[in-house]
Structures are given as structure tokens and as C-alpha cells.
Inverse folding.
């Protein structure tokens, strides 16, 4: 293998684009200004392909593949937007809205919720599946942050940032299926966690109003994720 | 031990076995044990001892196939089979060996249940003591391995597998030879072989039976695979719910290690291989390759997107071969008799035989092995003896929660991977549940959806939330509270979940709904429009108050 | 070679912890020993209790939340102690179409417990299994470890009654 | 110029904020006033249900028997039905009671939190349904105008488009969730 990166050419939405070997379809699309909706993906964290919003069609491949983990290949013909994909994305969003309770006082006023933005971008007008209305609590035991499990979409960004960047692995997911929930340590109140360093990274990568800062007006609750690329680069350097 | 020494061991055991003129094989597999097969075994042993009989051996063996009629005892040399034997029948059974066949308990072995079967995987099942290495050796055990190690290169072994046309018996039907050659070609400092014994289909017990009745066969298959792909370590991942299977495979590993069939320098060659048992802990999703790997690594059994496939990057990132129990069990006879021999059985695209766990509303429930290409009708009505209690056949379910329900009109179709897929079901791992008119197909669909919902790992949205919503809609239909809009929504969710889920569990979860909608839509409509359950299973409230 | 881990003390002087430690040692205290260790703990103690989970986490150098996540992912594990007697109703397909649901309903009717629950007097825990692999004997139940095949609801209740009385 | 369209507005389980927002259309109301005949509204005193309605605008979720009765009656008598605001579209705040058992709710509201006459009322108060639902779960909805409340501009846009015989797409201006 030579050291020079291998350049590939492919088509995304009928647009000729080039990619460095190893790049994901999502990375190539974004470089070329092609919008692909994502929710669990966050640059700087390991991709998990869980939310299924970034599914794309690839000519000759019968299954839809997640753009966030699928690598670009020579001659690939990718479609990121079609009536079918739009319909699937809408349904997935509806499933998320119905899964828990997204009657949220924070996002409605500050418009910083990624779930809300996606719903708008995908033209959601209403949710066709019945709302489940589970009874989930709010954990406000931490001195600086609070966790409202009703808003959680289980994207596991908090779990990943805490493990991969902060190195504390305070967060993880317990249970299975529809009963999954993010937990701190042994499913104990966040404020009593033995391992939380109160760094707040989880709060800033949370795409919804699940993890928020206390004592900040809703309108000021902006998520700041600019630290991620720096820290990721430094972690990689160390390895 | 060298091959010569092992063969000597086998010859000695054959001689020993011949010393006994009579042999009583008592089934001690889980099925017969649960109806007190062990007390029959003890009673027969005591009877032989108290009468001081010479040349009579009482032996505990693996599954004798007809679970419905257990406990089963087989008497050699006449090969008579006795059913529903109780401990107090022991004296009569002993006397039966001396010219007085016991008609009262006789089970006709020329009946189609036995005659129509073709046993390869189960060839030793019920014929050897599963806890005896020598018994396995005496039945040509490890001959396939010895042939592979001493006469063939790894590439030749893979070529033999490719010739055989064997396809994965776990459900997917991926060509085994191709899988092996992919792993063999993958580069890695280490490679692993995993045996998937996390039998997940809730209505199937093939793998359990093979592990309980003939554990060495699976080990032999794994070692051959290790040699072929260049792996030196294997994991046997077995459900913790199968304690007997776990015990027997552990015992077999110990025995094989003792005689040098596992460890360094197997059979005096330079090849080394070890096997470790790992217990599953009750997660259907771990039947999925990447979830299974996560579980062996000690993590939550959540799948990850493929590619990369485990063949390239699997356990701890190393190339990994994963096959299921039955697939490995097919390997020794293929190596012993040649791939061409195996390819001579079955249909054009589905070779060999398939083991099915025949259960449900059918007379002869049990474990059967049939050649590929046999018709469903033959399995259900000849081998299975038809539907009991004068009831009418309605459907047969194959493939468990990932499969579908096949109606009467398709019963004459050959059983192979492609035909089953064509009618909306799958081969699956081998569960075959027969249903009669007393089963409601909407209720069956709801049952499977409840299963998928509780087995969904929760990682991807469509499977986690979609199965829950589909289950809710099916419950609504069963309760007679649904509208035609609900049915349309259910069908829409089926499509989305099928096409967008991350792994096989979610992608196939809608199958039981889709197949029942395809063949039994009228039953759905009866629940929705007429507010009645044709089979009388669902409890529908009279004049249920339905809005909209 | 990884550094030799510092000795972690078990939660109590209970000798059963040695069994758990044996399993961990057998696997070189590697992280992948987690599930095997939990199996041993459950076998020894009947369930997984929190101090034990913390002990295993420390000994295997695993995050607490990860251990808790694994323990709650697998349905074979239970974090609650079981009753003195157990009845497992197989919910495999063959058992389901031969009336497993009815068996559960009858048990609930008589003892007031749903699957996964234990009676108030700790006498009986009712559990379900997704399939115990005895489909040829549907409907099957396991009362105190003994499988009974082809049972009706009535027979199951009799078996439970006998077990509880013993 | 066609005949005036017959318009009704309905207030179910909601805070009336959507109706406030509707009135916030302000002077633009005059632009459309001569093209509309208001046949029923909480801001009018009309008994019974008018017939032959062209457009019914519904605020609020369906939470009790009276809501259900109303929405079914209006749906029967209207050509188009607009779900106005998040309560009508998602259930929103009123639906947050769905996590509780109905008896607990009654007890909390009328017994625990009552100063006097600690008693769950009888027939005077319409019974709660088993759960609070958005409008489209009960009757078909033609136009969704989300928001809590929807901005007056969005409401005006939606009505104006309908008056022109076009189907509005309020998502372009409004927001879901």
C-alpha cells in the first residue's frame, strides 16, 4: 500500500464527487453540501448507525445502508433523498416522538432541539402512531445538571462522549428494547454518581432537552459542541 | 494421540460393544428425562444387576427422535423401539429381549415417522453414549478430522465444503464453503471460530438435541473449521437455559483435550486448536453474529452495522468464522464421505438434510431429519401423523419469529431455502410448528411480535419503537377495537421496520404479520369489521366501545 | 502483559465469593469475563446483588454503568432474589399454541403473581422462559428445576401446590 | 367572488392560547372578514351544532366525553377540519395526564387538593376518556397548524390560503414539536 491516499470518484444524488478511501458516505456528502439527516451521529464520536435516519439508497445494493458508517467506494451511485427515504425518515421520527414525552418547555422556546429541527426539515405534520406516554422521571440530583428521561431518544451520544472523550464511562444504557434507559453508574441518582466528573460534555452533545444545565434560562440553553473535534484529535494523537 | 492410536481406541470400543449380545438404549435427552426417562434407566440397570444377566448393557443415549411418546427405550440387536416406558415395565422389558417382544409398548419403527427420515446430523443420536468419546470414535468419529489433518490442505478442506453445497443451518442459508474461504483469505494476527448454540427460535430444539446427543460431532466440526480457516481458538456459545447441553459439551471438550484432539499438535500434526464454552444469558438477538460477538466480549448483546462482516473483523477485531451447531455437525460426515456424497442429497440449491423440531398440533412431535426437497405435506401428514383430535390443518410456521405461516395450498411445495422464501417464510433454524383450526392467526402474529418486542435490543429506533407499536396495533385488533386505518398503519410499520432496522431481528420481525396478512387476511378483517375471532381464541368484548 | 490488578476485596466474608473470584481468575480478570462471572454469581447467590456487581466491576476494571447495563440486558439474570420455589412457564411457540398463556392466567388467578413476580410470602416466583427446548412436550413447565411436559393449567397448579407444601 | 365560507372554531381541552393567537391576526382580520361567516365559536353564544360548515378550526385535545361528542359532531358537519396548535395535534400538555390512572387524577383534583367538599363530581362534569388524544386519532384532520400557540402569521397564512382554494403548508412557517 502506498502512503498517498487513494482518491475515489462516486455519485451522490447525481452529483459527481470525489472521496478519500476510507471516508464514509456521510462525510463525503457533507463535504459537498449534500444534507443527510442524522441524529445519533456526531462528528468526533464513534458512529453507531442506530437512529437509521441517514439510511441511503445505493445502486445495486438491495438494502438501505447507513451513510454514517458505510464507506464510499469507487463508482458508487448514492441517493440520499427519495420519496421512499423521506417516508421512512418521517416514520422513524414519528416513532421517536411517540415513544416518550416530547412536550418540552425548553425546545419550544429556544428551538435548539435536533429532534425538533429534523421533524421540521422532514415536514412532519403529525404523529400517526399512538403516543405511548410512559411514566419516566426527571433526575435533578446533580448540582449543575439535570436529566429528563422523558426527552431521551437513546442516541447514546452521552454514553459515547463520556467513555471515549472524558474517559469516565459514567453513563451507559440499562435494560433492553423499549425499556432501555440511560443510567449513571449503578442506576443511581446522577448527583450520587461516584464517577461523574461534572465535566458537562454529555449535556452539550445531547441532541434533545434530556440533559440540560441548571440555572440557565431556556432561551440561553445553547449546546456547545466545538470542543469535540479538538479533543478527538488529541485523543487520536495519544493513541 | 496419533490417528493410529485413536483408531485403536475405536477398534477396542467396537470389540467391547460386541461383547454385549443385548443392549438397552434408554433415551436420556431432555425430552425423555422430563418424563422420567432416568428412572427407567435406573430400573433397567437394577433389574439387569439383580438378575446377574451377562452380555446385557444398559446405556443412556441421546435423543431417539419421537419425543411425544417418551420415555423411549431401544433394544438391540433387534432394534425394537418401546415407547411410554415406565420404571415398573423394566422386568417385562428385560424378558422381551429373550423372544417375547413386548407388544404393549412397541413403537412401530417402520412407520413413516422413522422410514421417511434421512439421518446424517442425527446419525449417532440415540446410538451412542453422548458422554463417551470412545463411543463416538467407534462410530467413525474424528475420522473426518483425521482425514483433513493428515491428507488435505486447508484449501482442499474448503474446496470439499464448497463441493458439498452445504448452506448455513442457522437460518440465513449462506454457503458454508464461501464463508470459510472468506475467513481463510482475511488477514489477521489471530482468527477465531465460533459455534452459535444460542438456539433462539422459541419452538425449536435441534441444536440442543445435537449438543446433548452427540457433542463430539460439533467439536470435530469446529476443529476442522479451525484448520481450514487458520484459527487456533474456538468458542462454543451455548444457551445457559440448556444445562445438559452445556454439561455434555464441556465433558466432551475435556475428553478430546485428554487424547490430544484439542490442544497443541492435534493428532501429531503441527495444528493446534482449543475450545472454550461461553454461556448465553437469554437474549434472542445474540443469534445475530455481531451481537453474539459482543456477548462473548462480555458486553451488551447489541449488533453493529455490517460491513465489516465478522469474517473480516469479528471477535476483538479479528477475522471470525461463525456457524451454528447443525452446520458444524454436518462437517464431519462431509469430510469423511466427501463433498460430492453430500451434494448427492437434496435439491439443486439446497443440499443434504435438515433437522426440524416438529411440534404443535401434530400427532408425532419430536426431532426429525429429512432430506431437503421433501414436501411439507409429507413432513406433517406422514412423518407427523397429521393433526390429532380430528381437527383441520390450518398453517405451519417455520423460521420462528423471523419466519412465516404457510397455508394448506403450499403444502406440496418442496422444503428448501428458496421455496420457503418464495411463500413468505424462511427455512430458519428448524422450528416447525403445526397449527390447526383452534389457532387464531392474528393471535399468533401478536405472539411473535410480543417476542420480538421483548427481544429487541433497543439500539435502533425502528426495531425498538416499531415492534412495540406493531404489538400495540395487533393487540388492538385482537381485542376487536381496531379500525381499517389501524390495519393500514400496521402494514406501513411492517414495511418501515423491515427496511430500516439495523439487524436481522428487526428486519424480519414483521414477517409473521406479513405472511399471516398474505394468507389469512380474512381473519384480520373478521376481528376488525365483524368484531369476532373466527378461532375463538381472542377475547373480544361484546359491543366494545370503539371511537372513530 | 497487563499489570497485575490490585486485590479487590469481596463484599463480605461469604465463601461463595471465592467461586465468583475463581471464574474471574480463570479468565485472567479480563473484561470479557463479565458475563461468565455474573453467571457464577447468580448460580451461587440466586440473584445479582448490587455490592456483588460493584465487586465484579472493580475486579475486572470495568465501569459500573457498563456492568449494570450488561446485568440488565440479559433476561437470564435477575437483580431481585427469587422465592423459595420457582415455576417457569415455557412460552415457546409450541407451548403457546398449546395453552401456556392459560397456565399463566390460572397461576395469576390463584397466587396473584404475574411473570417475574414473587408472592408476598416469598414462597413462589413465577417466571417465563422464551423456550426451554422441550417443544415435543408442549406445554412444558419447570417447577423447582424439574421439567414437566404436556401439562394443563390444572396439572401445573397441582405441581406448584406440591412444591410449595414440601 | 364566491359566497362567504362558513367558519366554525372549537375549543376543546386547551388553554385558549390558540384562540388568542387567532385574534392576534389583528387588522388582517378585516381583510378576510367579508369573506367569512362565523357560524360557531367559543367567542359567540351559539347553541347546538351548525350544519354545512366549510372550515372548522379545532383547538385542544380530546380529553372527555364532551370533547368527543363535539369533535364527532363538527366533523360530520364540516368539509375541512383544521387542527390548530400542539394540543390538537400532539395531545401536548393535556395528554401528560395519560401516565396516570383516571381514578388517581380525580382523587388528586377533587379530593386531595380540594379545600372543601372533597368529593368527585358526578354527572355535572363530563367524564374523562381513558386517555387524552390528539384530534387525528379520533377523526380525520385536513390541515395541521402546529405551535404552542401557532404564530398569528401562520394562522393567517393558513386561512388565507384556504380562502384562495389552495391547501396551505404551514410547516413552511410553523414548527412541529
Amino acid at each position: 500500500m502506498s502512503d498517498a491516499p487513494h482518491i475515489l470518484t462516486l455519485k451522490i444524488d447525481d452529483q459527481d464527487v470525489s472521496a478519500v478511501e476510507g471516508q464514509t458516505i456521510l462525510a463525503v456528502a457533507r463535504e459537498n453540501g449534500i444534507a443527510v439527516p442524522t441524529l445519533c451521529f456526531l462528528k468526533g464520536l464513534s458512529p453507531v448507525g442506530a437512529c437509521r435516519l441517514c439510511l441511503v439508497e445505493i445502486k445495486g445494493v438491495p438494502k438501505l445502508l447507513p451513510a454514517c458508517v458505510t464507506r464510499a467506494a469507487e463508482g458508487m451511485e448514492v441517493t440520499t433523498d427519495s420519496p421512499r427515504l423521506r417516508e421512512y425518515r418521517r416514520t422513524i421520527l414519528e416513532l421517536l416522538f411517540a415513544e416518550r414525552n416530547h412536550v418540552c418547555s425548553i425546545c419550544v422556546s429556544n428551538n435548539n432541539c435536533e429532534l425538533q429541527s429534523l421533524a421540521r426539515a422532514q415536514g412532519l405534520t403529525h404523529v400517526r402512531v399512538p403516543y405511548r406516554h410512559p411514566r419516566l422521571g426527571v433526575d435533578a440530583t446533580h448540582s449543575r445538571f439535570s436529566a429528563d428521561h422523558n426527552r431521551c431518544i437513546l442516541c447514546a451520544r452521552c454514553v459515547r462522549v463520556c467513555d471515549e472523550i472524558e474517559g469516565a464511562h459514567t453513563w451507559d444504557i440499562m435494560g433492553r428494547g423499549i425499556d432501555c434507559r440511560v443510567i449513571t453508574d449503578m442506576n443511581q441518582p446522577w448527583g450520587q454518581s461516584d464517577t461523574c466528573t461534572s465535566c458537562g460534555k454529555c449535556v452539550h452533545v445531547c441532541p434533545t432537552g434530556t440533559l440540560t444545565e441548571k440555572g440557565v434560562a431556556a432561551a440561553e440553553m445553547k449546546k456547545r459542541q466545538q470542543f469535540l473535534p479538538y479533543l478527538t484529535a488529541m485523543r487520536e494523537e495519544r493513541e | 494421540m496419533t490417528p493410529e492410536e485413536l483408531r485403536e481406541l475405536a477398534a477396542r470400543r467396537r470389540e467391547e460393544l460386541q461383547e454385549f449380545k443385548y443392549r438397552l438404549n434408554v433415551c436420556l435427552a431432555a425430552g425423555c428425562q422430563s418424563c422420567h426417562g432416568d428412572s427407567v434407566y435406573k430400573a433397567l440397570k437394577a433389574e439387569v444387576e439383580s438378575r446377574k444377566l451377562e452380555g446385557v448393557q444398559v446405556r443412556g443415549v441421546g435423543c431417539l427422535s419421537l419425543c411425544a411418546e417418551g420415555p423411549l427405550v431401544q433394544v438391540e440387536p433387534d432394534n425394537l423401539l418401546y415407547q411410554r416406558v415406565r420404571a415398573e415395565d423394566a422386568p417385562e422389558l428385560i424378558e422381551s429381549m429373550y423372544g417375547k417382544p413386548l407388544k404393549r409398548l412397541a413403537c412401530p419403527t417402520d412407520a413413516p415417522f422413522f422410514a421417511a427420515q434421512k439421518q446424517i446430523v442425527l446419525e449417532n443420536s440415540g446410538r451412542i453414549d453422548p458422554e463417551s468419546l470412545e463411543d463416538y470414535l467407534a462410530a467413525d468419529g474424528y475420522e473426518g478430522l483425521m482425514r483433513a489433518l493428515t491428507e488435505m490442505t486447508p484449501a482442499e478442506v474448503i474446496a470439499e465444503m464448497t463441493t458439498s453445497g452445504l448452506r448455513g443451518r442457522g437460518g440465513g442459508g449462506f454457503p458454508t464453503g464461501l464463508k470459510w474461504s472468506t475467513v481463510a483469505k482475511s488477514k489477521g494476527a489471530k482468527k477465531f471460530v465460533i459455534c452459535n448454540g444460542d438456539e433462539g427460535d422459541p419452538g425449536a430444539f435441534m441444536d440442543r438435541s445435537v449438543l446433548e446427543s452427540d457433542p463430539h460431532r460439533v467439536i470435530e466440526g469446529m476443529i476442522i473449521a479451525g484448520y481450514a480457516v487458520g484459527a487456533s481458538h474456538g468458542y462454543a456459545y451455548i444457551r445457559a437455559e440448556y444445562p445438559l447441553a452445556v454439561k455434555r459439551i464441556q465433558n466432551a471438550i475435556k475428553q478430546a483435550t485428554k487424547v490430544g484432539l484439542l490442544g497443541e499438535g492435534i493428532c501429531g500434526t503441527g495444528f493446534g486448536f482449543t475450545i472454550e464454552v461461553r454461556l448465553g444469558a437469554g437474549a434472542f438477538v445474540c443469534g445475530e453474529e455481531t451481537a453474539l460477538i459482543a456477548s462473548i466480549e462480555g458486553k451488551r448483546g447489541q449488533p453493529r452495522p455490517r460491513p465489516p462482516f465478522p469474517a473480516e473483523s469479528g471477535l476483538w477485531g479479528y477475522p471470525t468464522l461463525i456457524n451454528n451447531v447443525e452446520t458444524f455437525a454436518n462437517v464431519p460426515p462431509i469430510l469423511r464421505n466427501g463433498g460430492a456424497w453430500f451434494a448427492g442429497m437434496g435439491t439443486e440449491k439446497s443440499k443434504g438434510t435438515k433437522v426440524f423440531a416438529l411440534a404443535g398440533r401434530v400427532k408425532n412431535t419430536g426431532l426429525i431429519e429429512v432430506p431437503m426437497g421433501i414436501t411439507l405435506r409429507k413432513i406433517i401428514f406422514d412423518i407427523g401423523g397429521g393433526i390429532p383430535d380430528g381437527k383441520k390443518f390450518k398453517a405451519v410456521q417455520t423460521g420462528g419469529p423471523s419466519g412465516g405461516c404457510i397455508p394448506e395450498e403450499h403444502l406440496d411445495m418442496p422444503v428448501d431455502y428458496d421455496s420457503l422464501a418464495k411463500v413468505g417464510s424462511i427455512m430458519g433454524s428448524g422450528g416447525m410448528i403445526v397449527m390447526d383450526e383452534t389457532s387464531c392467526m392474528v393471535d399468533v402474529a401478536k405472539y411473535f411480535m410480543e417476542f420480538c418486542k421483548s427481544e429487541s435490543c433497543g439500539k435502533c429506533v425502528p426495531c425498538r419503537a416499531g415492534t412495540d407499536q406493531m404489538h400495540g396495533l395487533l393487540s388492538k385488533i385482537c381485542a376487536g377495537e381496531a379500525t381499517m386505518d389501524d390495519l393500514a398503519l400496521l402494514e406501513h410499520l411492517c414495511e418501515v421496520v423491515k427496511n430500516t432496522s439495523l439487524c436481522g431481528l428487526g428486519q424480519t420481525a414483521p414477517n409473521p404479520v406479513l405472511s399471516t396478512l398474505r394468507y389469512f387476511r380474512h381473519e384480520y378483517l373478521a376481528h376488525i369489521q365483524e368484531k369476532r375471532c373466527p378461532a375463538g381464541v381472542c377475547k373480544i368484548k361484546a359491543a366494545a366501545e370503539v371511537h372513530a | 502483559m497487563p499489570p497485575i490488578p490490585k486485590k479487590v476485596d469481596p463484599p463480605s466474608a461469604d465463601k461463595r465469593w471465592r467461586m465468583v473470584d475463581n471464574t474471574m481468575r480463570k479468565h485472567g480478570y479480563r473484561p470479557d469475563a463479565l458475563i461468565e462471572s455474573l453467571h457464577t454469581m447468580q448460580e451461587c447467590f440466586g440473584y445479582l446483588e448490587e455490592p456483588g456487581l460493584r465487586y465484579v466491576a472493580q475486579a475486572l476494571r470495568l465501569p459500573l454503568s457498563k456492568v449494570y447495563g450488561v446485568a440488565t440486558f440479559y433476561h437470564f439474570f435477575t437483580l431481585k432474589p427469587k422465592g423459595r420455589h420457582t415455576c417457569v412457564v415455557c412460552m415457546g411457540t409450541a407451548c403457546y399454541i398449546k395453552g401456556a398463556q392459560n397456565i399463566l392466567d390460572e397461576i395469576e388467578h390463584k397466587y396473584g403473581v404475574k411473570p417475574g413476580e414473587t408472592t408476598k410470602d416469598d414462597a413462589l416466583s413465577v417466571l417465563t422462559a422464551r423456550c426451554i427446548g422441550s417443544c415435543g412436550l408442549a406445554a412444558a413447565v419447570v417447577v423447582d428445576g424439574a421439567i414437566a411436559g404436556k401439562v394443563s393449567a390444572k396439572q401445573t397448579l397441582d405441581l406448584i401446590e406440591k412444591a410449595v407444601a414440601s | 367572488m364566491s359566497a362567504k365560507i362558513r367558519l366554525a372554531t372549537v375549543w376543546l381541552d386547551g388553554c385558549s392560547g390558540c384562540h388568542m393567537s387567532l385574534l392576534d391576526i389583528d387588522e388582517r382580520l378585516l381583510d378576510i372578514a367579508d369573506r367569512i361567516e362565523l357560524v360557531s365559536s367559543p367567542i359567540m353564544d351559539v347553541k347546538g351544532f351548525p350544519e354545512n360548515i366549510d372550515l372548522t378550526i379545532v383547538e385542544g385535545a380530546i380529553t372527555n366525553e364532551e370533547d368527543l361528542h363535539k369533535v364527532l359532531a363538527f366533523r360530520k358537519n364540516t368539509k375541512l377540519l383544521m387542527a390548530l396548535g400542539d394540543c390538537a395535534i400532539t395531545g401536548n400538555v393535556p395528554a401528560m395526564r395519560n401516565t396516570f390512572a383516571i381514578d388517581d387524577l380525580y382523587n388528586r383534583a377533587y379530593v386531595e387538593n380540594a379545600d372543601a367538599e372533597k368529593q368527585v363530581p358526578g354527572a355535572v362534569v363530563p367524564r374523562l376518556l381513558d386517555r387524552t388524544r390528539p384530534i387525528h386519532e379520533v377523526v380525520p384532520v385536513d390541515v395541521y397548524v402546529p405551535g404552542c400557540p401557532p404564530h398569528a402569521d401562520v394562522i393567517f397564512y393558513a386561512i388565507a390560503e384556504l380562502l384562495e382554494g389552495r391547501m396551505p403548508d404551514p410547516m413552511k412557517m410553523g414548527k412541529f414539536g
